[in-house]
Amino acid sequence: MDSIRVTGGKPLNGKINIAGAKNAALTLMPATLLSEEPLTLTNAPRLSDIKTMTALLQSLGVEVTSMQDGKVQVLSSHAMTSTTADYEIVRKMRASNLVLGPLLARHHKATVSLPGGCAIGARPMDIHVTALEAMGATIDLRDGYLHAEARGGLKGAKVPLRFASVGATENVLMAATLAKGTTLIENAAREPEIVDLATCLRSMGAQISGDGTSTIEVQGVDRLGAATHPVVTDRIELGTYMLAPVIAGGEVTCLGGRLDLVKSFVEKLEMAGVSVTETPEGLTVKRTGDRPRAVDVTTEPFPGFPTDLQAQMMAMLCIADGTSVLEEKIFENRFMHAPELIRMGAEIEVQGGTATVAGVKKMKGAPVMATDLRASVSLILAGLAAEGETQVNRVYHLDRGYEHVEEKLGAVGAQIERVPGS
Ligand code: EPZ
Questions:
Q1: How far apart, in whole angstroms, are the C-alpha atoms of residue 144 and residue 371?
Q2: pLDDT tens across 254-292, in order?
Q3: How much is the pTM?
Q4: Helix/strand/coil percentages in the chain, nearest 5
Q5: With a 6 A CB cut-off, is 169 part of the ligand 1 pocket?
Q6: Which residues pair with 305 in a beta bridge?
Q7: 3-state secondary structure (DSSP) of residue 123
Q8: Exactly one of 118, 200, 254, 318 is catalytic; which is it?
Q9: DSSP result, 302-367
């Protein structure tokens, strides 16, 4: 397994291009299942998770053609061969469960393996199941698979979500586009990736309003057509690279960055003494003092502080001036980066869903272990300012969600290299 080696102490200066959003692409790709016409996605990110989703869709009979080095994906589900999402693929990536809604909507049948837990939590699917059952589906859990059917197709319904689940909102939104009648999703997730999906579905002919708010209304239609859609900028990659100059010093412009995608995150950065300037190119970031200030953070559904930036923010708070309290309210076990940061000299105390971070002036490079996607990049960020060398192992986690991280950080002055695994 490859590892990444970072030598700290180099300030960063220059521009980093932000790619299309992994978490948008992973819901846009299954949307092809809703129509026999082709769906073309541009600005697609080049990530291993995209390859996994491609393999899953191909296992269902979807044709996926990748062009321009993966930046353009053309998908067509006119010749489907299966409606079963196999455990072997689903266990590798939870987002595989996003084929459930579209398969039910157009094929009235779906057999989808339960993803199983992952490092950050149990991540059940009860909200997805309850919502689709409200639309007339019958869903049985047998031998680790959800066996779903919708005889005569799904029906529009009022669907209150007990929690604003991103995936459940996406599954229900896609399912509702072809259901008979009107669907009202209440307590819907408001993430930009939901708005991006709704925008794409509308361009395919869906009738959707209210996306981006807590209540989404969908009028079912008989069929959807072809579309070409640009994947929205990745707000989590954006936030990650915005933290790099805050930790390492210097000034970096994140090309394509949009303030509206990271508003609550930027509010916290500015409280920590960081200057963020929006220009036509993107977002320019630099810290104003020689150390960021401590700030308290609580993760919440959008537009609150994103859980997917919690680990990266913790890396910054480890060297902040003062003590910060981080509350993780979305996942039950998302502080696995803390013990690794402590190996680098951080002072962190974890009690359940709360981590208290007492900032230190300097951390020390060390060999550390990546445990999940966002934890792994937080260790790299910490390594940018640590004394000496940090080696982050098991970076396959990283490659799931970040394109060529060593190239992007190296191009703005970081001393970083990928060490091919044995
Ligand atoms: C999406 O996961 C993202 N993944 C996650 O990003 C992100 O952390 C998460 O939303 C929250 O923003 C993709 O978009 C592919 P949820 P999702 O359903 O949809 C519980 C990353 O690093 N829950 O909003 O799975 C669940 O256990 C990844 O890019 C239920 O209890 O998230 C969790 O505690 C990590 N029952 C909470 O809700 C359900 O039926 C949030 O889950 C569904 C979810």
A1: 25
A2: 999 999 999 999 999 999 999 999 999 999 999 999 999
A3: 0.97
A4: 35, 30, 35
A5: no
A6: 299
A7: coil
A8: 118
A9: TTSB-GGGHHHHHHHHTTSBSEEEEE--S-SS--THHHHHHHTT-EEEEETTEEEEE--S--B--E
